[in-house]
Amino acid sequence: xxxxxxxxxxxxxxxxxxxxxxxxxxxxxxxxxxxxxxxxxxxxxxxxxxxxxxxxxxxxxxxxxxxxxxxxxxxxxxxxxxxxxxxxxxxxxxxxxxxxxxxxxxxxxxxxxxxxxxxxxxxxxxxxxxxxxxxxxxxxxxxxxxxxxxxxxxxxxxxxxxxxxxxxxxxxxxxxxxxxxxxxxxxxxxxxxxxxxxxxxxxxxxxxxxxxxxxxxxxxxxxxxx
Amino acid sequence: xxxxxxxxxxxxxxxxxxxxxxxxxxxxxxxxxxxxxxxxxxxxxxxxxxxxxxxxxxxxxxxxxxxxxxxxxxxxxxxxxxxxxxxxxxxxxxxxxxxxxxxxxxxxxxxxxxxxxxxxxxxxxxxxxxxxxxxxxxxxxxxxxxxxxxxxxxxxxxxxxxxxxxxxxxxxxxxxxxxxxxxxxxxxxxxxxxxxxxxxxxxxxxxxxxxxxxxxxxxxxxxxxxxxxxxxxxxxxxxxxxxxxxxxxx
Amino acid sequence: xxxxxxxxxxxxxxxxxxxxxxxxxxxxxxxxxxxxxxxxxxxxxxxxxxxxxxxxxxxxxxxxxxxxxxxxxxxxxxxxxxxxxxxxxxxxxxxxxxxxxxxxxxxxxxxxxxxxxxxxxxxxxxxxxxxxxxxxxxxxxxxxxxxxxxxxxxxxxxxxxxxxxxxxxxxxxxxxxxxxxxxxxxxxxxxxxxxxxxxxxxxxxxxxxxxxxxxxxxxxxxxxxxxxxxxxxxxxxxxxxxxxxxxxxxxxxxxxxxxxxxxxxxxxxxxxxxxxxxxxxxxxxxxxxxxxxxxxxxxxxxxxxxxxxxxxxxxxxxxxxxxxxxxxxxxxxxxxxxxxxxxxxxxxxxxxxxxxxxxxxxxxxxxxxxxxxxxxxxxxxxxxxxxxxxxxxxxxxxxxxxxxxxxxxxxxxxxxxxxxxxxxxxxxxxxxxxxxxxxxxxxxxxxxxxxxxxxxxxxxxxxxxxxxxxxxxxxxxxxxxxxxxxxxxxxxxxxxxxxxxxxxxxxxxxxxxxxxxxxxxxxxxxxxxxxxxxxxxxxxxxxxxxxxxxxxxxxxxxxxxxxxxxxxxxxxxxxxxxxxxxxxxxxxxxxxxxxxxxxxxxxxxxxxxxxxxxxxxxxxxxxxxxxxxxxxxxxxxxxxxxxxxxxxxxxxxxxxxxxxxxxxxxxxxxxxxxxxxxxxxxxxxxxxxxxxxxxxxxxxxxxxxxxxxxxxxxxxxxxxxxxxxxxxxxxxxxxxxxxxxxxxxxxxxxxxxxxxxxxxxxxxxxxxxxxxxxxxxxxxxxxxxxxxxxxxxxxxxxxxxxxxxxxxxxxxxxxxxxxxxxxxxxxxxxxxxxxxxxxxxxxxxxxxx
Lengths: 226, 250, 849
Fold this sequence. Notes:
heterotrimer, A: alpha/beta, Rossmann fold, 10 strands, 35% helix, C: 4 domains, 10-stranded mixed sheet, elongated
């Protein structure tokens, strides 16, 4: 379960920018929520805070009851590693590594054995339908395939939470729909909590819950019947 | 004193007026002639800062102007005892000089080029210790002056061979009453270099002689006073006292 | 150059650290150049002044090499028409026994005549009277010291000083202190004056003088005077002006100059690659900016000039800093060089003033700027060729330099071919060309080899650390531009160290062989603690006393001294050749190995050390003319042998010949062989008891002599350690530079790694691995180049520097030490960048630009 209590985030520059302003949210285990809002409304900031990539200026972010604010960097990383999978708009695959290697990164980082990694990576790539592309480099893949690799990487240890930042933002409509379907499928099959930032109304509409942010505040939090 | 080496350097005369000058020096030499001389000298060197160092030497001379031999031996203070200088004077040229330093254990010729050096820290130069014959110089009467209350002739002397002397010319004052040297001033190109005054002139064994010499080094303003004691003329001294072997015996 | 201010300044401001690192490369290079040369010049200048001061008003000096000549020559000189003053001089080096004061040059002079040549401006007196000149002359322990020396050691008139003399340590009494200035500035004040005859006695010189200083009469020209003197004295004597003595010494110091130059060139050359690297990176990073400039109408020429101007400005600033650093460095170096000269002259020269020649400063600035501009030339050209359209397309990389690297590879292949041809040919110019081309080839080929090696290493690295290792290797494979300069710099550094180490090792080995065959006596009985100090000598009789010591099997007398040969002071060794050969030998190079000793023993020939033979082009059969006080000695070369007795090489003649021509039967060293069955330490004790009680002597065992020789050799190679330090430092800077860029470039990648769960330790590790890989990639070709370089250096050294023939030997020991050192340095270099990598904001790293 993801819980935000009175979370604010400000960026200090020449002008202090408030990206999130006293946000309180709860996303129960197994939920699937879309975060929408105009540019600069704080969507990505929210996602980064939940994912432990950034720290809140005030308030508390907790994952499964564990407050992230009090954790040291490496402890935070461990939370991220064990509980959270990231899917980025621009995939963020490492261009020099093959699909296999890219997916294997988090497992290696956990210190898994080679055999176990091999088994899991094949399984994951099978899950996203790329079992034939093991030895390809990212640049040899289409945009949709790259995002599938990225999703496989995010799923590497079957984390309970999946965070996606505009997962379809860099894809054409058709491929975007495929990826969305994949995410839904994975949500259904694996029962992970999914939090997805999107611009795309269709994407948002496909989620049972839609949170609208505006100027760093939660403007609406609706559950649709889907 | 009638028989002082440095004095003798400057004896002579010749020609009309010059003849007179030379005649005066010749007369001086003639009157002060002696077969030998011996004395004990006490030296006080007073430098420009009035610091005084005292030494003693023993002096022996045999023979006469232009042909004499002299031996000079330091007796005091203890650290210089035995240092000696042997001089063989020649009528026609500069003398030969050897020095001896017992601690180093060897004799050493004093080269002609070095004769202008100070003699062992006194205000005499090695050259001033020579005796030279009247014939090695040209003389000219330069006037008459009174030195220490005594009337004197003032003579100018120039060495005939320039290389043999550090001085370009000298002035010599000779007392009219007894033909004894009263004062000498030696000049170099730079001007007055050295002045020697003869004081306490007394008669010893029939020889008029100064018992006290005062040397002034004009450049450094350092003075040396030499007192002659136990002065003895014409005592029998053997030739053997004036050889290199004798020098090394010190 | 408004562009420079608007564009470049901003860039520099954003990359302060990297700019500084790059500049440090030039700073170091220029600093070494200025430092070494300033120190060298200052010491030489001080030495020349010292000679000047010691010479005083002397217009000419009469010498007969180091061997000295009989006193009788003085009267001959004084009798020469036109000579106003001729003053004999003895120069002896005496150890002071005072902590930190080292040696003292004792000038033995004849106080009577010397005054007119040298100004002994003494304390507390008007015309420079010694406290009591009579006492000074009367007492052989009288010494005049300089004011600086007196002040350093709290001495005043009548103080006592201990000096080592031929009769053992003796107490001297200070009779006067020379006022500062003139003579006192010679050897930084480590100079004392005493009576020449006392000095003869104290230093066992018999009735010999070293030198006669001469002032001429007015109107007699120096040429005229020296001509008359030469005619009066004959061929055994040299009549020279005092300054030519300084020139002779300069010739001795020239070896050092060569080493200094090589170091500077290496540092600058390595620095050049750092600059190249930085500019290559800058051009890549500023692609968009350059694209905008081009789009706004800047011509190719303007863009190129912008980068060249940047490099010139950077070069100028860095050179200026380098000049300042060099001046500081010079202070330290001056001591070192002074000590080095001390080895040759006997007393360490202290440079009083370390001042930098304006011409040197100008040259250094010019060199720094030129290096910088040269290094930036290729990146500037690449910048000018950037296509504005492509550059402005985000996310698209224009692949620069594909053609360039192909061209480079082709050039490199050509260069390799040329260098192989040159290596086969053995003539001088071809050798240098070959060396030059080899370096060029190595530099050209380095980036390709780097990438190739990185590919080779990738599997191993990813096996070791699957993520970190693979990514580190990929980083190198993907962006060779980032590291090629660093790798080249590393390669050159390693090659430098390998080459130097190789020379050192080869020299050691050759020297040890020579020591084994030639220096095999059980003991050496010397008049001084040091085998090479020639200030004191033994009377001949000591040899007979030694022979009577029980347990002594043989005693060989050795007389050594420098004599002038073709304008240079060359060592002459005189020994009973037959006796020597019966027990020892020297590795023969040319000539009949047995016959040469027979001829030399019979006085029908001499032996020449290999290095001297090469430098002076002497072959067996050539007749050598040696000037001696007894006339010209003509001897044919009977053999060329390996002999490391002296850096300049030496002649070996029979002792009987020496005694006849030099009329000198003193002895420097006795080579003592112990009888079979007798114990070394017992014999040593017996010598000390029987002979040492009457005569001051030092017994050096064979082992001590060996230790001494390896110590001296070490000292000689000490300079090369400076080079090694500079090389390693420059490489570390290069690695830091490359890594700093690398982590900037890999910011996103590292961010992703952290996002997917890499802890900080893992991020650090990838930076470390990258650093180690860079080091490894630089070190491996560096070792190969070093092996080649060593070959060229040995050849060059043999031909043009020392003449020593040394066998090629790869310095495995040094390499074994060097590789870990370089890897450790790489790890150290990675610490900063690794910390910077984990410190950055993750959100920023992951954001799309």
